[in-house]
Specification:
Blueprint (H helix, E strand, L loop, with lengths): L2 H21 L10 H15 L13 H39 L6 E3 L4 E3 L1 H16 L2 H15 L13 H41 L5 H20 L3 H24 L3
Antiparallel strand pairs: 1-2
Function: Role in flagellar biosynthesis.
Keywords: Bacterial flagellum, Cell membrane, Cell projection, Cilium, Flagellum, Membrane, Transmembrane, Transmembrane helix
Pfam families: Bac_export_1 (PF01311)
Length: 259
Amino acid sequence: MQLLELLPAFLLVFIRITAFFVAAPIFSTRSIPAPFKVGLSFFLALIAFPLLKASGVIPLDWTYVYLAIKEVLIGLLLGFLATLFLAAIQVAGSLIDMMMGLAMAMIFDPMTGAQTPLMGNFKYMLTMLFLLTANGHHLLIKGILASYQAVPIDRWFNGLENGSLTAFLVEKFSYMFMSGMLLAAPMVSSLFVIDVALGIVAKTVPQMNIFVVGMPAKLLGGFLILMIVFPGYFFVMTRLFEMLFASMERMIEIMGAVP
């Protein structure tokens, strides 16, 4: 088979991996140069090309545009799913900052280009370091490469017609908010007790300016509670990563299911 006949199929592989890197955590950050992302996508496409399940030569016609759009959707959906789970860290950080009185002290995150909470950004950076330490980026790449076994490049993916893919994404979206609430629950509940205690002090000792004393007390209490619950944070992250990779595998199964 000539090289020109293989080029359309190779470009479809390259499109899916590039779209995945646009939305996936770690790889989608602005700190990684765009030429590096394109080069990594190209060499991974060379590795994934022998895994193809194409029925034959893919012609360059209007059907090819249809297939290219399909590859972009698959890459973006898989990358979005991985990012969705890590968004629970930002949700937990927003709740903690609101209780600690740091909600107005938002910082600019150069990796995402958006305003992020202090605690959310702190925990997100720790999560990224933990993901890299546990070789989670290798598992993300393994997931996108495994998708070619379930979803060939020459046919549309399943799950949209019967709504199973949409229902799966909505379920994981709700799981993301639930995970964020559970991550923030120890500190939020403890800070709520501090708020109740400050309210009792304000009623029993009206001479005390509770607005002056309350903010430093909540900050001090919040950081002390953070030091206490911090060792268990990485155990929770391990469970979250397990759910992330299991959900990616389940999504690939849904998209590759035979109708």
